[in-house]
Write a structure and sequence with these properties.
It contains 7 helices and 4 strands, in the order αααβααβββαα. It is mainly α.
């Protein structure tokens, strides 16, 4: 994959993580690059060299913008599903706590958030109150 395409793919994933523009377009663009990467010989290169992290800060920003009305809370499950399924997005970071040990709390919290919010039919409808609770848990 050309470096220009790699940078475009990374930009598409960053846009999705940050939810920078209308969600439908972000998902389509990110999915197109994921599909292209899966069908190319450079699949591992695009997703290992150019992976985009999802951390608490990014989730807090999305939740805050949902609560302020900048983003639509009703679209949050679709965003969470797209982020969870995108191969080029790394969810959480295991924190090195020394002695070879790792704290998986960040990864676990973000994975739980994405799973629960992307599956309101299994848990609860996503509302402003749900956003507030998750925002509190994200610290």
């Amino acid at each position: 994959m050309e470096s220009e395409t790699r940078s475009e793919a990374r930009a598409a994933l960053v846009g999705l993580v940050r939810w920078e523009s209308p969600l439908r377009g972000l998902i389509q663009t990110a999915s197109r690059y994921d599909q292209h990467a899966e069908n190319s010989d450079t699949y591992s290169g695009i997703h290992s060299d150019n992976s985009v992290p999802l951390d608490r800060r990014a989730v807090r920003s999305v939740l805050e913008r949902c609560l302020s009305g900048v983003l639509d809370v009703k679209e949050l499950p679709e965003w969470a599903f797209a982020v969870h399924m995108a191969d080029g997005i790394d969810i959480g970071v295991a924190i090195d706590v020394g002695d070879g040990g790792r704290d998986e709390a960040e990864l676990d919290l973000l994975a739980q958030f994405l799973f629960e919010v992307s599956s309101p039919e299994l848990f609860e409808p996503v509302t402003a109150e749900v956003c507030r609770r998750w925002l509190s848990r994200m610290g």
